[in-house]
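Figure 6 in text form: structure in, sequence out.
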């Protein structure tokens, strides 16, 4: 079984918004070159979630982990993402899909952000 990862973000009109998503995907490729990773966007940018999933399935993924690159789980993560995934999984029967929590809510990420912010006061980062 090959598991692919979809980094799912909001998207923006300014293309620089995707720089962080690109950096995360590049770092993941460095750490685990055999793990297929695609970015996907809710709006304004491409590819959308369905296209990213189709790409991973075409690359041989039989399971997916969707990592919402959101600071917190609001309507896009709690409502829009499941709606889109329902339509996608109907087109890919047998595809195992697991959705992770919004990345910004994970304890390690919260800790890293807190440490960074405190470091701005002390000059240590």
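Output sequence:
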């Amino acid at each position: 079984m090959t598991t692919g990862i979809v980094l799912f973000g909001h998207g923006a009109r300014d293309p620089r918004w995707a720089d962080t998503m690109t950096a995360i995907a590049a770092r993941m490729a460095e750490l685990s070159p055999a793990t297929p990773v695609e970015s996907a966007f809710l709006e304004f940018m491409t590819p959308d979630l369905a296209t990213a999933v189709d790409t991973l399935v075409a690359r041989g993924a039989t399971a997916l982990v969707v990592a919402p690159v959101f600071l917190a789980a609001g309507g896009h993560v709690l409502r829009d993402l499941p709606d889109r995934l329902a339509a996608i999984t109907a087109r890919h029967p047998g595809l195992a899909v697991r959705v992770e929590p919004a990345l910004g809510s994970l304890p390690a990420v919260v800790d890293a952000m807190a440490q960074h912010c405190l470091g701005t006061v002390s000059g240590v980062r």
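Caption detail: Helices lie at 19-31, 49-58, 75-91, 107-122.
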